[in-house]
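Changelog-adjacent note: as of this version, every example in the card shows the full chain rather than a window. The one below runs 361 residues end to end.
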Amino acid sequence: MDFGINFFPVLPPERKSAQDYYREVISLSRHAERLGFEHVQTVEHHGTPYGGYCPDPVTLLAAVAARTDRIRITTGAVILAFDHPLKAAGRLAMLDNLSGGRLDVGFGRAFLPDEFDLFDVPIEQSRARFAEGVEACRRLWTEQDVEWKGTFHRFGPVTVLPRPVQQPCPPIFVASASSAESCAAAGRSGHHLQVVPSLTTRQQLREMLDAYRDARARAGHRGAGRIQLKYTCYLAEDRDDALAAARVFEQNYTALMADAIASWKSARSDQYPGYEAMIDKVRRYDFDASLAAGKFLAGTPDDVAGRLAADRQELGADLTVSLQFNPGWTDAGRAAHGMDLFAGHVVPALGGGVRDGLLYA
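Full-length structure tokens:
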């Protein structure tokens, strides 16, 4: 196992200003690099407190790259349905250069009907726009004089500048919420995978990873591929303290997510089967059941190590775990202390340590 950190700003502006949040992201990213975390990543969302502080992950990650030297810089994820692939490919290649070749590119489809409405993009085009955009970016990075005649975009011939530092291109990750079909498609294409266990059942998660690994192997791609699991992590020496924080910020997350997905009450799309039931599922959220099901990590270092050891045994040792230590309006000092506890106690409890400057278990 490798370990990284992620940032998902789910908080209203009255709780913490955007300026303060960005300063804390940069400070915590530098601290993560000192401790040996493998990557720092952030999301893309628009127009609501559910992630709205990060409408462009490239901008925030460029600031992180300027203040760090080794840690990898990861988008988790860029939404190509809301962008032109020529512009996205150039902006991401620029970030790869600014970071000295440290970029991992995560692409996602988006899932909030209101965001599709904001950009005047039909949600029914979600999967097709995603597939076309990812392939267009890959070709723009790996080829010259690219001429593209797709369903949604036509351009070229053009050679995108700057050229990416990493050759043939930065590693490409596909973000999947709950679809084994999407995971299999990522495997067939030879891409890597980003998954959020809080959005799935344990059985669904196993099926998603199995589908990805099987499809990648059947397609003949070398290596196992990289799989990132994203968890929110509440760590403290005292279990009650950790669980009290978890209860506050998990409830904050579900409340703001419920607002963000409210349009699924009336929206329907064959691109997102079953999503109309999501609002009721979120409103029925049960903290204790979610903790028991491993939807997030909370407790003492021994508690968290035990949960991750179970993941390693059940889901495979080839995982990268991406951890959010500052959910909601968590104090930056508390988040940094959680990172210290993870590096200093959780990783050793898993039989790991630091190798070549990176945490492993």
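Structural remarks: The CA atoms of residues 258 and 283 lie 7 Å apart.
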